[in-house]
Design brief:
Length: 253
């Protein structure tokens, strides 16, 4: 099980310095968000021999998948994410299917997803759908496209504050398709992306009921929002390391 740390795209600290912090920490690699700088960041990771587990596609236009507004922009964004992942030998591309405004699911959106999966297959990349607010679109796409290049990214924080179904059986469905897990905490109301054990999520339950089924899987700490509470990136990583150790202890029980 590798421990991955997600890198906040708008952190103004020098990227190489951040990567040096990661190199000297308990974390084994990073998760990169698409941004104007992401190719440059992928290049730095390559030069510094830092494992990049996943690229996260920009999420704000995800709704356009289901209608025509801005779809071309979103399409090229996703395609570019897949292309970069392939170029920099990053296996996973994480994406959302919906954002703030939820439109009805429809065949047009499904066909567009099929096109993405086809391209991901060609580029030997795995597209991972992340659970956000809306399980309906998520089920529709996963149930309709059965491919080794379409998998799940399970986000524990989102299940706690958005769909509020973390402790239900729902997320255990298709658990064999989960290839990455995002860990962060919140108060059950807002997507705070806090360090595990500082919000309302019962991580003991989560490790026991979910992670132990998937114990070969890597875990990603997605706690970038917390950067504002610490003076330096190193402090954030150091505090996250304490939580990672607690998670590892839970695995040993
Ligand atoms: Zn996430």
């Amino acid at each position: 099980m590798k421990k991955i740390f997600s890198i906040y795209p708008f952190n103004d600290e020098d990227f190489k310095n951040q990567m040096n912090v990661i190199k000297n920490s308990l974390f084994d690699g990073v998760f990169i968000y698409q941004s104007d700088a992401y190719e440059e960041q992928l290049q730095v990771c390559k030069e510094m021999d830092i494992f990049v587990e996943a690229i996260h596609v920009l999420r704000n236009k995800a709704d356009s998948l289901w209608n025509d507004d801005d779809y071309e922009v979103y399409k090229s964004t996703v395609m570019n994410g897949i292309y970069m992942a392939s170029k920099y030998k990053t296996k996973l591309v994480v994406m959302h299917l919906t954002s703030f405004k939820t439109k009805e699911k429809n065949e047009r959106g499904l066909n567009r997803m099929k096109e993405f999966v086809e391209y991901a297959t060609k580029m030997d990349v795995i597209l991972c759908l992340e659970n956000v607010r809306n399980n309906e679109h998520f089920d529709y796409v996963l149930d309709s496209i059965n491919s080794d290049h379409l998998k799940r990214c399970f986000d524990v924080g989102h299940a706690n504050c958005f769909s509020k179904d973390l402790y239900s059986e729902y997320h255990l469905k298709n658990i064999e398709r989960v290839v990455c897990v995002h860990l962060h905490d919140n108060n059950g109301l807002y997507d705070e992306h806090k360090i595990p054990f500082t919000g309302s999520i019962d991580f003991e339950w989560f490790v026991e009921k979910f992670m132990k089924i998937k114990n070969q899987i890597n875990i990603t700490f997605e706690v970038h929002n917390q950067r504002m509470y610490y003076d330096t990136f190193k402090e954030l990583v150091d505090n996250s390391s304490i939580a990672v150790k607690r998670i590892e202890e839970l695995f040993k029980r």
